[in-house]
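pinned: reference chain
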Amino acid sequence: MIIKHFRRYYFLFWLSLVVFSCNPKKLTIENTQHNINKEINFKYLTKNKNYVSAHRGGSGIKGYPENCIESFDYLYNNGIQIFEIDIAETKDRQLILMHDNSLQRTSTGKQDVNQLKLNNVKKYYLVDDFGNKTSFKIPTFDETLKWGQNKSIYFMVDIKKGVDYNDIVSLIEKNKMQNQVVLVTYTVGQAKKLHQIAPNILLSVSMRNEHEFNEMMNSGIPTDKMVAFTGTKRNKKSFLDKIHDKNILVIFGTLGNLDKSNLAKNGQLYRDLEKDGVDIFATDRAIFVHQTINKN
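pinned: its structure tokens
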């Protein structure tokens, strides 16, 4: 009798362990983690939180190279919703994601991008920032846009020298991603040209000082098509308030030296910048900054 009861309770004990380990609620949370990302609002007066823009689509992550779809997916599932990406052009005029003129630093290839056709580019593998070869391939801009469809994300598109703006815009429109793209500009002339080609797409425009602010205000580009990049040098809160008065979001770049110098400072810089009025952090430490600025 004692043995019979022991066997019964032993069976129930192991059954409960199996049920707990296969908890459907737990699986649902893990499998739908990306769905918790809210839609991004690029207007200051109606924004619902502050954001992180992953520089070069994510950098400094072991096993995940920059400008790589697999890296976007990894970051997206960790709460990142904005990806700054670099678009270059191959010899046969195909648009790919690559920051440098050469493939050497970020892939197993060594040639310049404009010396290779796409089919040759696709033979190489991406390398992470620590020199580790991965199984990931260099993505095309088209593949990247398709990955972003039906997700709560934005791409900050940095167009490399020599790439035709019309080719960029045409591919964005083909994929119906006009409402999920910000075109990065560095001068008022470039901003005007891109706005003329793509009047319905948001622009990241330089507003590092009063002169650039006034230049953009007089450019003829509607303010509801602007996101203000204020550079990598901290501005006074009053200047950021002036940008906010135009219902424009502020992007600030901590990438490079600021990210490196704050590695051991427990994120205080990012919290201070939030108080100043920074809305979007362009950073090489995407996950850390996201966790820091979104602490309750």
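why pinned: Residues 1-35 have pLDDT under 50 and may be disordered. The chain has twelve helices and eleven strands.
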